[in-house]
Design goal:
- The protein is 39% helix and 18% strand.
- The protein is α/β, with parallel strands linked by helices.
- The chain has a single domain, classed as P-loop containing nucleotide triphosphate hydrolases (Rossmann fold).
- It has a seven-stranded parallel beta sheet, with helices on both faces.
- The radius of gyration is 17 Å and the shape is globular.
- The structure holds guanosine-5'-diphosphate and magnesium ion.
- The site of magnesium ion has 4 residues, from helix 2.
């Protein structure tokens, strides 16, 4: 019997990378700075975007958002209230966005009018990190309620991120979460990434996050 071996994983990633490279070219051609927000469900990705978007608008940077969820339009509706273009993508079961889904998002955004495109990936601490999307900048959103050690338990996402946001710092008083210990765990998997502690509820340090994004957007 002849056995035919098919490397599904490799093919899948190669095709994805090809589309991701094309996405990147489209972003560059349109002079758009593109960001991918990743993190667990409930870490506060949408809440941070809700605080960040008005701040970016104050810098006259126009934003478009691609919302990724397995199902539903909750987050698209939350972001839509800010009067900016939003595309909601439902993966129908997949735990992550892939490059071809971002392409669909891009096709449905007014790219020539935008300076920044922010993707909110499907809430998951593993899968989204495995699929390149073709963006400039990866952000992991993690929150104080998740525990300090998550960077070493789920290293890939933290290791590919340029920026790590520690969210829900307004809850520090009621949690046993040690920020220094969290930063040390991050350093074990990523020596370079900047870490900014924020609150998507009170808006604490969203100014710092905004300045970092504005700086990157101007360079990029
Ligand atoms: N106390 C507190 N709650 C937050 C903060 N950020 C988000 N939340 C809450 O956490 C829950 C999940 O937030 P959401 O933005 O939907 O998270 P996502 O799934 O990562 O997009 C919601 O109930 C938010 O109100 C924060 O900084 N502090
Ligand atoms: Mg969300």
């Amino acid at each position: 019997m002849v056995i035919k071996k098919i490397q599904i994983g490799e093919n899948l990633f190669a095709k994805n990378d090809e589309i991701a490279d094309e996405n990147r070219r489209i972003f560059v051609e349109n002079q758009i700075f593109s960001i991918n927000f990743m993190g667990s469900p409930g870490s506060g990705k949408t809440a941070i975007l809700e605080k960040l978007i008005p701040e970016l608008l104050k810098f006259n940077l126009s934003c478009g958002i691609i919302e990724g969820d397995i199902a539903g339009t909750f987050d698209g509706e939350r972001i839509g209230r800010y009067g900016i273009p939003v595309v909601q993508i439902n993966t129908g079961g997949a735990c992550h966005l892939e490059a071809h889904m971002i392409r669909k998002g891009i096709e449905n955004l007014p790219l020539s009018e935008l300076d920044i495109v922010i993707v909110e990936n499907v809430g998951n601490l593993v899968c989204p990190a495995e699929f390149k999307l073709g963006v400039d900048f990866n952000v992991t959103v993690t929150s104080t309620t998740e525990g300090e050690e998550k960077p070493v338990k789920y290293p890939l996402m933290y290791s590919i991120s340029e920026l790590i946001l520690l969210n829900k710092i307004d809850l520090l008083g009621v949690l046993e979460f040690d920020i220094e210990s969290f930063k040390n765990y991050v350093r074990r998997v990523n020596a370079e990434a900047e870490i900014i502690a924020v609150s998507g509820k009170t808006g604490e340090n969203i100014g710092m996050l905004t300045r970092r994004i504005v700086k990157e957007a101007k360079i990029g």
